[in-house]
Amino acid sequence: MDPDAGSSTAVSWPSASTAGAAAKEEEGGGKQVLVVLVGPPGSGKSTFAEAVQGGSAAGRPWVRVCQDTIGNGKAGTKIQCLKAAADALKEGKSVLLDRCNLECEQRADFVKLGNHVHVDVHAVVLDLPAKVCISRSVSRMNHEGNLQGGRAAMVVNRMLKKKETPFLTEGFSRIMFCKDDNDIKKVVDMYNVLGPSDSLDSGVFGQNSKGPVQVGIMKFLKKPGSSVEKFSGPKVTPSESIPQMQNHFSKQESLEAGGTCPVEAEEEFSNSKKIEEQSRERVLSDISSHTLAFPSISTADFHFDLDRASDIIVDAVAEVLQKYDNIRLVLVDLSQKSRILSLVKDKAAKKNINSNRFFTFVGDITQLHSKGGLQCNVIANAANWRLKPGGGGVNAAIYNAAGEDLQRATKECADTLRPGSSVTVPLPSTSPLHQREGVTHIIHVLGPNMNPMRPDCLKNDYTKGSKILHEAYTSLFENFVAIVQSCMGKQNTEPALEKPATGVTSPNDSKTKRECTHDSERTKKHKLVQPNVSSNQATEGDIKRSAVTTTKMWGSWAQALHELAMHPENYKNSDSVLEISDDFVVLNDLYPKAKRHVLVVSRRDGLDSLADVKKEHLPLLRRMHSAGVKWTQKFLEEDSSLVFRLGYHSVPSMRQLHLHIISQDFNSASLKNKKHWNSFTTTFFLDSVDVIEEIEQRGSATISSDDRVLAMELRCHRCRSAHPNIPKLKSHIANCKSSFPSHLLQKDRLLSSSTMHMDCT
DNA sequence: GTTCTAGAAC
DNA sequence: GTTCTAGAAC
After folding, report:
1. I need a surface site. Which of A58, A117, A436, A592 has the fewest CB within 10 A?
2. Res A579: pLDDT
3. pLDDT, averaged across chain A
């Protein structure tokens, strides 16, 4: 790649003729730069630094900090370089750090320094062939660091063995690789025209794609109790001013290898340190891909106050990083001038967030690896509530980059998304985004909504909006953690719940759906689920099923059906009771939610709900189903325009297993609220045919004990359009003539005069 | 499951 | 002001 490919920033600023203080004054525009040169002796670092310093045509004041010369005749130290760099930056100057910096550890303190004083930290890698460096260093005379002749060849070889390619995650905002003098010249030219207020785009430029894999960058991925723990670097605190940093460094001074090319360097590593390094690399390579890249959610659509949004991001990030160790988060924005990015960066630094575990990044979220050199196995999508492509921005970009695979995979996981929630979609390996960028999962997230045509519009309610935005990020991070945990093959303290997602459920696709995860709504009470559900006992699969047995507490009001089932003779004169058999009672629902709404109530004591049903109950279920079909037929004879659905509520409110037979007009005054609607039109409603089939195959029914589907937005059961409230929904469904969703047209899930081969008169 | 009602939304 | 939702009580 051309080294200046990323220098798209215009450099047409007025040239500041004065240096130093003048540059500092202009800080509002661009930033100072700390250029960390990376290269062995003979690679041309000093020549590069002198060329930039001497050729600056744009008024940017440069200071060269060179370890070879900083000791005034004696061997210079890293500490001296750090101090000199800190001083120069404090004076508003940009710094060229002229030392080898071949190892991550050698660079780390300088990067930290640059990030602390909020300057851009660049790496310029002088990646020339070893023989070139050797030949230059061997033959040169009067080298500043007195490294020349035969000794130089040995040192260059030794150092190159230890070379660790710089990576953005070390804290660099930009890395440029120079393979030859031509590349070097281009980079020098780029800096020469970089005015005091200019800045260069973030990213990696000129890297050879088959470069070595960088493992050292993963040192942030410590796990408590593991050997990696020992390698967590000194904790960075916001109050850690430069002098304090220097104190810290001075303690380590004896351990630090000299900057330029000390022959002694190799001896500085004790055996124990080597062992630690090896074990670190081994562990870290296992979890090296656990990185989530996410865009800023809702800030464009919602016109969210960016200051508040950045607080929310930083808070949510801090919370999740505190809870989990082995993850890395990256906030991505396309624009170099992104305000949300700079706000978040500043606040994260102030909040003492480890910049290795969370950082901001300028780039295209769909090309982080190929263009940015940043490997992220999971990326978040600022999705729309329909989970559909389009709309521009990140959503469109991700759908475009991932191809149709993403649409298909998303559809298998969920139909919609509520504000403040997220859903994980495993990205098929056939997707270009998977193949090219190494992205294995997309997590769709939906922030607060302000479009009055959509459900849950917040208008200008920032309190609520903030809450939802925080929920959205938390949900995103929890889902990401769940992916990481499942990749690591273990469930930690707080595994994110794995649930069947919203939308279509059928035996055919239930497997894939289970692989998707929806967010857990921690604040919501699960009133219908009693503690004995024992979610924490779930081990493999983690699908809560059939766990609600005999000990569920039923309120007195919930006992009516049980009472009826046990003593149907007491009700035989009631108008509501249509049929009594040994197995069941058929009755009109007391509060019908449609023109026709009938219950087939099992008479078996102990079968409180579907969760209690086992294979031995199949004959009963089949008989209940047949009774339902028989009565449906009768109703269709009375009104052939009706369409019926037969099914069970996942978690019923009334005790005693009962099958609903309900016409799909939903034209009833008793249908009053969201829970009523969603209990019949979401996955909460399990079709009788599917329940029977699953019990035949698995021995029990898969039940989502998650009642969040009941709180979902109101959508037409035919055309899936959304409506803000019950009255509007009702007026819509009264007129909606759309055909039913295709899955309902299969397997006799819908019964009508045509499917039952009756005459339509 | 429904009813009642406070308070949010309009 | 009225409409609508959501939570508590039953």
Report:
1. A436
2. 96
3. 76
